[in-house]
Structure formats: structure tokens, C-alpha cells
Amino acid sequence: xxxxxxxxxxxxxxxxxxxIRSTTQSFSLPKILRLFNRHxxxxxxxxxxxxxxxxxxxxxxYCTKPFAFKELTFDHVIPISKGGxxxxxxxVTCCKKCNTKKAAQTLKESGLKLMNKxxxxxxxxxxxxxxxxxxxxxxxxxxxx
Length: 145
Prior knowledge:
It contains five helices and four strands; from the N terminus they run H-E-E-H-E-E-H-H-H. By secondary structure, the chain is an alpha+beta fold. The chain starts with a helix and ends in a 5-residue tail after the last helix.
């Protein structure tokens, strides 16, 4: 509300049935605000374990099965022992069974194949983390599909 009242944002959509009241005024509660200026935004997606899992949709990139967060690991496509780096282009989401099978081998040596070639995402996956099924439908258009 401070951003709205100080002219740093505008209402895109608002709730019809929810009001915010002060002693002298009342406002419809905004559903979505648009900021006029970007503040402290990153120009790239930060490399984190969670963002890798989100990029790969919590799916092992070798056996193609979905897993819970606690059941997943990182895998270096090119092992560190063979010059591989820890970055977006060399890390994939992997289940523990496939990670053990691959060990410190290359894809060719292990006989495993990648579901998707790893790359840096062009959108921030963490922006959509708190959206739940019962949230306003308007919110969903702002997240990648």
C-alpha cells in the first residue's frame, strides 16, 4: 500500500469484496500491483540448488522420474574430476540411484542419457514459489508455464 500511496506503483487488478480502511479513507485491496521502477532486481537467475530443481521440474534428468526435494541430488554432467564446473551448464537434477550409477563417469562411460541439456533459465523460478492453487487466477499469467 505504501508503494501505491506514494505513486511508485499502480493497481492492475483489485478484489471486489475486500477493503482496506483508514480513519478517513477506504481502498479496494489490490490483487496485482505494477511497480513503475525496478528495485534490487537481479538480471540473471541465481544458481542455487532450489533453482536447479525448479528448472528441471523436480525430475531426474537421467531416469526421467519426478521426486520430492529430499530425494534429489545435483549431478555434474562432466565430473569435477574430469574438469567439470559447478554451473548452470554442467549441473542437472538427479535421483540418488542414478547419481550412484553415474558416479564420476562421463555420460558415455555410464551409459546414461540426459533428458534435457542443462542451461541457465531465462526466468526466475522462485517468483512463482508461493502461488497456490486457490490464489487469484490473475497471478498465474505472470509465471512461466
